[in-house]
């Protein structure tokens, strides 16, 4: 599986997980300039911006650790643009879905409210 295929697989798993938890998927792969939001979802209380990180192993650390402060700033900037573009008045929450997928199976960890603006 290529890195791109693994990423797509992870986003598909994350989308399925969110739907099973009652989230409404609004958009996937929203882009603003060079920045991207993997999944935009809604709950009754929040617009949820979801960053998905998928790896084949945790040898170099859990996938969620790749969401650095710099990456968080990029996601927040992109989310701000999304809210402006769609003219929304909502509470925004930032989640991370961390996935390890290999021949042993798939492990998914959903970290709600993972970081703030």
Structure description:
By secondary structure, the protein is an alpha+beta fold. The protein has a single domain (3-115), classed as Trna Endonuclease, Chain: A, domain 1 (3-Layer(aba) Sandwich), CATH 3.40.1350.10. 31% of the residues lie in helices and 41% in strands. The chain has helices spanning 3-20, 69-86, and strands at residues 24-32, 35-42, 47-55, 92-102, 105-115. Strands 1-2-3-4-5 form a 5-stranded mixed β-sheet, with helices on both faces. A hairpin with a 4-residue loop joins strand 2 (35-42) and strand 3. It is globular and about 45 Å long. The N and C termini lie far apart (35 Å). The model has no long low-confidence stretch (mean pLDDT 94).
What spatial order of strands do you see in the largest sheet? 1-2-3-4-5
Q: Calculate the mean pLDDT score and round it.
A: 94
Total domains:
1
What level of helicity do the residues show?
25-40%
Return Rg in Å: 14 Å
Number of helices: 2
Q: Which oligomeric form is depicted?
A: single chain
Total strand segments: 5
Q: In sequence order, what are the helices and strands, one letter per element?
A: HEEEHEE
Distance between the amino and carboxyl termini: 35 Å
- Can you tell me the overall shape? globular
User: Low-confidence parts, pLDDT < 50 over ≥5 residues?
Assistant: none
CATH architecture: 3-Layer(aba) Sandwich
**What class would the helix/strand composition place it in?**
alpha+beta
* CATH fold description: Trna Endonuclease, Chain: A, domain 1
Main β-sheet: number of strands, strand sense, barrel status?
A: 5 strands, mixed
Beta-strand content: 35-45%
